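Team,

Forwarding the record for the chain on the shared tracking sheet. I've put the sequence and predicted structure together so nobody has to dig through attachments.
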Amino acid sequence: MNIIIFSKDCDNSTNQVIDWLTWHAHTPIRINHYSDFFQLFNRVGIDNNNISFIHNLKSEFGIWYRRRGVLAGTSELDNIDTETHYHLKEELLSLFQFCFDELEESSKISLGSKNGSRINKLLVLKHARKSGLKIPNTLITNQKNILTEFLKKQDSLITKPISEATMFMSKLQERHVMYTEEYAEDENTETEPIFFPSLFQKNISKKIDIRTYYLNGVCYSMAIFSQQSEMSRTDFRVYDTVNKVRNVPYKLPKEIEKKIVMLMKSLALSEGSLDFIQTTDDEIIFLEVNPAGQFGMVSKPCNYYLEEKIALYFNGKQ
């Protein structure tokens, strides 16, 4: 079976899954750029009597939306900062959205979200609560007086992006990454009365971080001993390359896994990476989900062989 993979350049996890797909007798077709897309799909037409969606696939196929790739990045146009080329990108994205819907209708099996990692964190928190998961006390505000009252009730806060955590370059070409950061009372004294809308949550004392990769109803979890290093205490993604923290297989309670399945079904997600913390009182607190999250960081330390399990998913054997 042909497996169409929407990915991006230099995604090593995609490379490894492709190896396993080939081993299990599939024919992977990787699409990183819009130019790749048009080598596979050469005509889309709509009139009053017919919809023409012509592709070069001669047998049944499956789809894996690994990364936004072609949907988010028309990389050949990204470096041209003009209104004209912005319009061209929007034209392509509209076309891709239609083609993705057509692919969904005719594919035998699909994995992942065609919207990539673009998922609203606030809606996710709402769905998580409805699914019975515990979430941190959360506030979004742009007013210092409201933030001050919230801080009094929570003792200590963290702040993080409302949308995706991204990397950007400063005018001095310095690389900056948006991590979760503590927000203490002394910082609050310097905060302007009105500021850009920002997300704040209770800073919860934790024993460990938990990263769970979800695949079609099955949870593969890993405990991250983030509290072993001062660097990773607030955000485990701030790696301590000298004193590396331990990462070991972890089994979530069955009732938590059932609630995860409920959450992912409510979000219409067949895969994704979820983050939790285990508090010092042994409560499991849900933080967020990334539909296109990393699974290699869970697979290798825990010997889960998730790359092969993804390939087996297209055989109906996962």
